[in-house]
Fold:
Amino acid sequence: MKRPKKMYNPEDMFIKRSNTYLGRVMHSFLKLPGRYVNSRTNQYPDFFGKERKTDATILVDLELEMEESEVLESSYEVFVSEKETEEIPQLAECLHNEKGKMIIDIEDESSKVDKQTLAKDFEYNYIIHYESGLPVYSVITTPIPLKRCKTCYISGNTVFKPIIKSYDEMDGEAKLKEFQEKYERGEYFSDLEGYELISIPRMYGEKGNEVIEEVCILFNKIKMKNGRVKIQLARCLDCLINKYGGTLEEINRLEGLINMTKLINLEKEYEDRLRQEGEEKGRQKGRQEGRLEGKLELARQFVEELGVDKVSKISKIEKNLLL
Structure:
């Protein structure tokens, strides 16, 4: 199945898919504070009735400790230091908030981080705080080097300083080498490592086109325990294929390297199975007793011919119920 046209605004779609389907993994990847609770709506009507759409918003709890498995998965410990509460007022506010919760607004800015960008994100911050009643921690992700990003915006007496996470600060070349060696050792990739792998082209900035094919080839070969997560990672990687692939012909070729058509079919099968299981659960309760009684009656018919021991073994029914 070939793509009929290029994806519109693929980097925007990358962060939205990450938020919707891989929120916990994205939270770990960006090393955000607190423990991930859930991903929230990204649509917020403003005071004038205009709909504002954020890229990603997640709810976190600073009072919950991370489980051991989460610490191992993300390879870092989440904590809130005294220095952080001084530098980030939202954290201090959250620690004194009886709910212990905080909203993290994540905006992905691929072209610029300037005064206008910060003014827009400040407005999002204010609207989300008004809607939720919770402190809001603003994060900007970008492939732009930090030295080219404006870091502070002043509105009246308010100083707005979002946290800027630049992919330029991440060593994509070292990560790619690390993951190639991991694959050669035959090791399984964690959810976080899978997300780091697909994010490598963004670490190369405008040169992401030079590494996108290598990432696609490696991604197709790696082993992951969670097949559903790998499908969603492929969907996110497809966004970057559309970003760095160039021509439609090249995009279709790169999608072929990650078996996109096969993954889409697997995703559909998975969704269909979930739907069917949901419908079946609604009918199961009423049928369960009758089905068990019918199975027991059938098994009893073979007891005389095959013996109680063999029938019990085949049917998985206890012997005392067969006699």
The CA atoms of residues 104 and 137 lie 5 Å apart. The first strand starts at residue 35 and ends at 39. The chain has 15 helices and eleven strands. Residues 65-85 have pLDDT under 50 and may be disordered.
